[in-house]
Amino acid sequence: VRLIDQRRLPHRLEIVEARTVDELCELIVALAVRGAPALGAAGALGVALASATDEDLAGAAARLVATRPTAVNLAWGVQRALDADDPVAEALRVADEDVERNRRLGDHGASLLPADGNVLTHCNAGSLACVGWGTALGVIRSAVEAGRRLHVWVDETRPVLQGVRLTAWELEQLNIPYTVIPDVLAASLLASGEVDAVVVGADRIAANGDVANKVGTYGLAVVAARHRVPFHVAAPVSTVDPACPDGAAIAVERRDPAEVLELAGARLAPVGARAENRAFDITPGELITRYVTETGVWSSVAALLAGSGSA
Amino acid sequence: VRLIDQRRLPHRLEIVEARTVDELCELIVALAVRGAPALGAAGALGVALASATDEDLAGAAARLVATRPTAVNLAWGVQRALDADDPVAEALRVADEDVERNRRLGDHGASLLPADGNVLTHCNAGSLACVGWGTALGVIRSAVEAGRRLHVWVDETRPVLQGVRLTAWELEQLNIPYTVIPDVLAASLLASGEVDAVVVGADRIAANGDVANKVGTYGLAVVAARHRVPFHVAAPVSTVDPACPDGAAIAVERRDPAEVLELAGARLAPVGARAENRAFDITPGELITRYVTETGVWSSVAALLAGSGSA
Known about the structure:
The structure is a homodimer.
Chain A (H helix, E strand, L loop, with lengths): L1 E3 L10 E3 L3 H9 L6 H17 L4 H11 L4 H12 L3 H24 L5 E6 L14 H10 L3 E7 L6 H13 L3 E4 L4 H6 L5 E4 L3 E3 L4 E4 L2 H10 L4 E4 L5 E2 L16 H4 E2 L2 E2 L12 E4 L6 E4 L2 E3 L2 H7 L4
Parallel strand pairs in A: 3-4, 3-6, 4-5, 6-9, 7-10, 9-14
Antiparallel strand pairs in A: 1-2, 7-8, 8-13, 11-12, 14-15
């Protein structure tokens, strides 16, 4: 399994290779590959790798799913490959479908963005988070392709900095105007009318509409609601977990405090400092204006499931 | 004028010296000294330095005030030294008064904190931001000294990281339990009941109660209000600017984008990236539970001014 090593971006575009499921699991934990839809494809490819190398499929699947507890797409991709007669062919199908699915999602969501204005996004829900095109960033790309003139505020997204490293890199490649901001500036921009819409991705969507996404999403949604700025969540239908009743039932991954206390090998904090590092937070459905999927634009998850044939 | 070089913390405690007003202005712009009350003392000492070196006082005062447009204390300290017959003696008085004033402020504010619980603070409003004791951190110190058992959530405070570098360093010295968090985690902690109170400092308080403070304060206040977590602002009376009607009249300093795009000399962003770097934001008075000053605890700025003999 070959993938872009996202830890090296934006400075170097390198491909890294996993020859065993354990190597792939290490790459997933280290965030060489991340983003809910990309994890779906990685999970399916992991089962394909186990099948190609005659590893025990059930054991490989369990190890893959355990790497990241919050994103439901990982388990979904693993299951699709497990359920297939030919895991390798199915994994390639999962990966191929992703791009076309995100294109449809982007086209549906483009209509939510202004003809001319400022859109804010958090973390990276672009090509790098998927196999291609992107979800939240896919909506922005589709809108720009359709002639809308957008400028993107890019939350830097502490602690792992997916915004300034990955989203900025993608927008630079795409020649879409953008400005990086510290996450803490977003609230003032929302207050001053400098943001016309917020679009983010999702790692899991509960049956009641609550959304788990990168930590920082919740605060953004609260401030957007105060200023009546539309707050949209863009994700494939596979991100919805109908078995999960609400946000309280979603396990939030805790990661290494070193991601907060150090940066690029340099220590930021004094000796002795501890840090709390939760990778995700939960945004209640009441704060979400629209859910955008490959099947359409939805005002609730109930409508989404009914309209997507997944209820 | 000798001061702690805050750019070197938490790794090295170094003293830096300014021999001219221009050298002091450079140190202020570079954030070697920062924090509203400390800037008040630095401003007064700058005028004293001009007087001791026979520089033009009015010109020196204007250059000092222009270094940081948001914190009103800087202009206040400069004016106190300018108005005095002996600027040197007056500047030393401004500095000496600061510690005693913050002690009184801390003692008033301590009663607002729980007997046992979690307090969250943003940026650094500790000893380093003052001449001594601190304002927001002074309230926490006074409460701990009075026997309250507190744990402090320390917002790292992007982009200059005053929380993880300075507040964590002070709490480490004081042996007060604390945990550093990425700023984006604060909203979830407020939502989950893991924060009993928020205490921050201020750089300018308008007559209507609006507060300019480190960028990120506004978003924190919005989320705290949603979860009915008390949100207190601790600052000396000199931070109130009765001539300033409201937050819209406060100039918010824009700083070098490199503070966002680089860290410790390492580039975070791709080549070509731009960033927006506003150092402060405005929190409307309606979101502030109590104002804590050396004269007491106040529910409004009108009451504060009347009760402090400054109306």
